[in-house]
Amino acid sequence: MSTNEITRAPYLAAFPENLPFWDAAARGELLLPRCAQCNEVHWHPRAHCPFCRSDALRWERASGKARLHTFTILGRSDAAYVLAYVQLHEGPLMLTNVVGVEPSPQALSIGMPLQVEFRQTPQGRSAPVFRPA
After folding, report:
1. Which residue of 9, 34, 81, 110 has the fewest CB atoms within a 10 Å radius of its CB?
2. What is d(CA 35, CA 106) in angstroms, rounded to the nearest whole number?
3. CA-closest candidate to residue 100, choices 89, 87, 113
4. CA–CA dist 32, 22 (Å, integer)
5. Cα gap 128→5, rounded to integer Å
6. How far apart are CA 89 and CA 129, in angstroms?
7. What is the rounded distance in angstroms from the CA atom of residue 93 to the CA atom of residue 89?
8. Which phi and psi angles does 114 have, rounded to 5°?
């Protein structure tokens, strides 16, 4: 999906400050916003820092490493998936899916190391998901 196509998406029209994130995701890179004022990294992207309210934000490439913070298994046994909060190496929690593992409590453990990868959404964007490292 091109930048022009991304910018026509209703979500991005409403939140244009997220465009760098989606452009990077299309390239297979995970970016996180860092505040130039207080130096805190945060997630979910927004126009102002949630720690100091500064609008002096810059995007930085993240390591892509995370640990499983908590999870739940949703869906039916024949179409189950893992919805999880992962703690990014850089600090913030991110709501995402865990892929590449059997969606069962026996296959997942809190604190397990994960690595980002990108999957295409139904809208045509690339979104971060995590798999066991």
Report:
1. 110
2. 39
3. 113
4. 11
5. 19
6. 15
7. 9
8. -130, 160
